[in-house]
Specification:
Layout: H1 22-53, H2 55-65, H3 68-95, H4 102-126
Helix pairs in contact: 1-2, 1-3, 3-4
């Protein structure tokens, strides 16, 4: 039978009061960065194909990649590459059965986040 007292029941927890664990956030970021790397790779492939096509077409592709938007996409691609690499190393550590307790898993998550930013800054500064 239909519940006639629907309005008086408490609501389940929602995003305003639920805090996602760091391991869940880093897992989601790993998937996002993996897909973002595809976009960066497609942009580089387009640039290489344009280089092999004609000087006029290469000038267009090179103009896009060297614009502020291209610089932003390439910098974010470097960030995604470093994060995805560090997350992969974290998963290799987990595959050995180490670091699976919550404090260590959170430390590894922070290491991935902070390490990817630091390595991106170093990469952009050197290049």
């Amino acid at each position: 039978m239909a519940d006639v007292n629907r309005g008086n029941r408490p609501l389940s927890p929602h995003l305003q009061i639920y805090r996602m664990p760091l391991t869940a956030i880093t897992s989601i970021l790993t998937r996002i960065t993996g897909n973002a790397l595809i976009v960066g790779a497609l942009l580089i492939v387009w640039w290489l194909l344009a280089a092999s096509s004609s000087p006029e077409y290469f000038a267009i592709a090179d103009g896009v990649i060297t614009s502020w938007f291209g610089d932003l996409v390439m910098t974010l691609s470097v960030l995604a590459l470093w994060y995805h690499t560090l997350a992969g190393v974290r998963h290799l550590i987990w595959d050995t059965g180490r670091g699976l307790d919550l404090p260590t898993a959170e430390k590894l998550g922070w290491a991935c986040l902070i390490g990817s930013v630091v390595l991106t800054v170093l990469t952009v500064a050197i290049v």
